[in-house]
Design a protein that fits this description.
Layout lengths: L2 H13 L3 H23 L2 H17 L10 H18 L27 H19 L3 H12 L4 H8 L3 H24 L9
Helix pairs in contact: 1-2, 2-3, 2-4, 3-4, 4-6, 4-7, 5-8, 6-7, 6-8, 7-8
Length: 197
Amino acid sequence: MDDADLDAQAMLRVAAGDRRAFAWLFDRYHASVARFALRFVGNRERAEELTQDIFVKLYRNARAYQPTARFKTFLFRVATNHCLNEVRRGEYRAPHAPDADDTEGREMEGPRGDRPDAALEGRELERAVSEALAGMSARERAAFTMCRFEGMAYRDIADALEASESAVKSLIHRATLAVARRIEALQAGTVPARSRA
C-alpha cells in the first residue's frame, strides 16, 4: 500500500471520528503546511497560527473528503484557500526574506563542514528565491510552492487551486522565470545591497 492510500484511509477514519488518525495526518503534514503558509505571510508565528487554522478546517470538513481525490491535494486546497483569504485581507501582502541571522528560516543548509563561503552563497540563494516569491501573485506563489517544494503534479495542483492544468502550467512558468531572473541578478551581482546583507 502506498503513502497516498494510507493518507486516504486515515482521512476516511478522521471522517468517522478517529482522532488518532487525525493526529497521524497532522504529524505527517504539519511541517509542509507550515512552510507553505510561511511563504504567504513571511512571519513564522502567523504561519503557525494559519497552520493550526488549516488543520482545524481540515478536521471540520473531513466528511467532504472524497477518496477519489488524493489527500494531499485536498489538504493543499484547504491550505491554499485559507492562505489566499489571508492575503486578500491585506494584512500580509508578501512574505519577506528571512533575516541573515535567522537560522530557523533557512531551508537550504548544506552538510556540516561546508565552507563558510558556500554557506553564504546558500543563504543568498535562498534569499533570492524568497524575494522572487514575494514579488509573485498569490496564485503563482501557491502553484510554484506546491510544484517545486512539495513535488505535487500539475493535475493535483490544478485540483488544489480549482484551475485548469494549462493555467497551472502558466502560473508555474511565470513563477519559475521570476525566480530565474532573481538568481541571475544575484549571480551577476546586481541584487540590491539590502538583499545581499
